[in-house]
Every structure is written in structure tokens, then in C-alpha cells.
Design a protein that fits this description.
100 residues; 4 helices; 53% helix; Metalloenz_LuxS/M16
């Protein structure tokens, strides 16, 4: 994504998926009220939720490339290493008080 654009189909799928996720989150009155309250709290205006729908439609291939170039840099990289050790021989369980 840093060096070549996403395809038209990929961009269309992304937009459809994001719009659907936002609209699905408004599926009932409680969810709608929660979303409106969340937007009011985070952005100071509940109408910002509807601006997000417009913003999704306005995403371009150039936007994706610009964000990818800013995000996918060495300074943002996290590296993890998993080490496997050879299993140890199982120990016999401790016996308390002898056999019954």
C-alpha cells in the first residue's frame, strides 16, 4: 500500500464494509442512542456520526497511500519472538498420606 494503489474493487469493498458496519451499529434504539451519545461526547456534536458516512465515501486511493506511508514505518514496528524450549520429563505427582 505504500508503493502501489489498492484496486478499485478493494476500495469499493472497504467503503461498503465500513458504511455497513456503521449503519449496523444503529440497528435498534438503544444502539442508536449509544452511538449518538458517543459522538456527542467525543466530538461535541452528535451529527458528526453522519459526517463519518460522507467521509467514508470521500476516501481516495491517494488517501490510503498517504496514510500507509505515514503509518508503516520502522519506528512504528513491533517485533515479537516466540522461543520454544524442549519439554522436561514429567514429574510423578506427589502422594499425600499414602494409598487407601
Amino acid at each position: 500500500m505504500k508503493t502501489e494503489d489498492v484496486t478499485d474493487d478493494e476500495l469499493a469493498r472497504f467503503k461498503a464494509s465500513e458504511r455497513a458496519a456503521l449503519l449496523r451499529s444503529l440497528g435498534d434504539n438503544a444502539s442508536l442512542a449509544g452511538q449518538l451519545a458517543d459522538y456527542q461526547t467525543r466530538f461535541g456534536d452528535w451529527k458528526a456520526m453522519f459526517q463519518d458516512l460522507a467521509d467514508i465515501d470521500n476516501v481516495t486511493k491517494a488517501d490510503i497511500r498517504r496514510v500507509a506511508q505515514q503509518t508503516f514505518v520502522t519506528a512504528n514496528r513491533t517485533v515479537a519472538r516466540i522461543e520454544f524450549k524442549a519439554p522436561t520429563a514429567p514429574q510423578a505427582p506427589a502422594v499425600e498420606g499414602g494409598a487407601r
